[in-house]
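Format is chain and fold; as here:
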Amino acid sequence: MKGQLFISDVLVSILVLTIIVGFISWEFEQIYNRTSDIEYAKLSSLANDISQMAVKNAFYNTLVGIPQPGVNLAGWNNLVANASELIQPPYSYYIVYSNADTGQIIFSTTGNGGCNAKKNIVNVKRLRADASSLVTVLDTKVCI
């Protein structure tokens, strides 16, 4: 009888211990998922902010003599300076402005090493058509 009580006590304690370990591991998983969501929201916000700055700065008040219609070189340089100031390490970025039809790159810039070897990447694309019927793509990648 004593052996049966000991075995049932051990089984109950193992069951309780298993439930406790299960709840703890579930909580750690929830914390990890929340952290990933927050990190994605931060990257997405940075990529959208950079894209919005590009639309406002690089594509208005065009200068005469720029090879591609509708692109303001001074605005693009201002965008690169703002992006470098806004996105600090460990974050990196890669911004490409290209022709949507041919894929020809008009302007591009990389900051803090680029996004080639990074795992967490947010990509924002904006299409733009100007008066000369040139359709262009602004591709902004922010990564960590």
Remarks:
- Residues 87 and 137 are 21 Å apart (CA to CA).
- The two ends are 62 Å apart (CA to CA).
- The beta strands are 92-99, 105-111, 121-129, 135-143.
